[in-house]
Design goal:
CATH class of the largest domain: Alpha Beta
Strand order of the largest sheet: 1-2-3-7-6-5-4
Shape: globular
Bound molecules: biotin
Order of helices and strands: EHEEHEEEEHHHEEEEE
Radius of gyration: 18 Å
Helix content: 25-40%
Distance between the termini: 45 Å
Number of helices: 5
Number of domains: 2
Structural class: alpha+beta
CATH superfamily of the largest domain: Bira Bifunctional Protein, Domain 2
CATH topology of the largest domain: BirA Bifunctional Protein, domain 2
Strand content: 25-35%
Length: about 260
């Protein structure tokens, strides 16, 4: 796959742009990035603010091979999380943690969110959009009050960690993320959608690991201890009665993070 970068000064949402480009015949590897999004989309129907050229909003078009089982696709979000963590660590020497499955944290605050969307018909996938938003140049005052204690930006962390007035580069981040993603994606396809190749590294970054977590199951929330990510992308947890379970999807809160005490 060859990466084909397109840049927009302002757009509604880079995920929506990839969907439009696919409809116009764009190929796997097309990347849409924007300085500002006017209708950025977050998970669970939330908005994702990308104002005034202060963040990275970037999305990639994938057309996974027909023989890749559909249930492996959530693994793409896990690969994206690793690609972001690796890029931030390599380029800026900031330590990243990952909140399963795909929030990236620096200093226990969220610096990046990932929204993967797909289009499928008759049991097979037409395309997948992996959309990544990274907070880059925001100051504390740029975050709305509800999230200002939970969010951070690369510039804020560089200032804290290295005492520098160094500004992170959005272009470097975009290129780094997708190049790292591509290399993980090639292995992922080679091993039929297994995450075994990144499991160990991912678990070393996992903020949930060995922590008390609250699983927001639609059938009723419960607490357990998180063990680690499995090769299928699920989160292994240890119940209080000693039994092991795997959580495939949904919200998992980690004690000590985002106000869960
Ligand atoms: C989250 O809620 O944590 C996920 C946020 C994902 C935001 C990114 S920004 C680039 C891409 N375009 C969108 O509209 N959303 C994703």
């Amino acid at each position: 796959m060859k990466l084909d970068y397109r840049y927009y000064k302002t757009i509604d949402s880079t995920n929506l742009e990839i969907k439009r480009l696919y409809a116009q015949g764009a190929k796997e590897g097309t990347v849409a990035s924007a300085g500002t999004q006017t209708a950025g989309r977050g998970r669970t129907g939330h908005r994702w603010e990308s104002p005034r050229d202060v963040s990275v909003a970037t999305s990639l078009l994938l057309t996974p091979p027909a023989d890749l089982p559909m249930e492996k696709l959530p693994g793409l979000t896990i690969l994206a999380a690793m690609a972001v963590a690796k890029t931030i660590e390599e380029e800026y020497h900031l330590t990243c943690e990952i909140k399963w499955p795909n929030d990236i944290l620096v200093g226990k605050r969220k610096i990046c969110g990932i929204l993967t969307e797909m289009d499928a018909a008759n049991g097979s996938v037409n395309y997948v959009v992996v959309g990544i938003g990274v907070n880059v140049h925001q100051t504390k005052a740029d975050f709305v009050e509800e999230i200002s204690d939970m969010a951070t930006s690369l510039d804020m962390e560089l200032q804290k960690e290295h005492g520098e007035d160094k500004r992170a580069s959005r272009r470097t981040i975009i290129r780094g993320i997708w190049e790292n993603f591509l290399s993980y994606y090639q292995d992922f396809l080679r091993y039929q959608g297994s995450l075994e190749g990144i499991r160990e590294d991912y678990n070393l970054h996992l903020v949930n690991r060995n922590k008390r977590v609250k699983i927001m199951d639609p059938a009723g929330e419960y607490e357990a201890k998180a063990v680690g990510m499995e090769a299928d992308g699920s989160l292994a947890i240890l119940m209080d009665d000693g039994t092991k379970r795997c959580v495939d999807s949904g919200e998992v809160h980690v004690r000590g993070l985002y106000g869960y005490v």
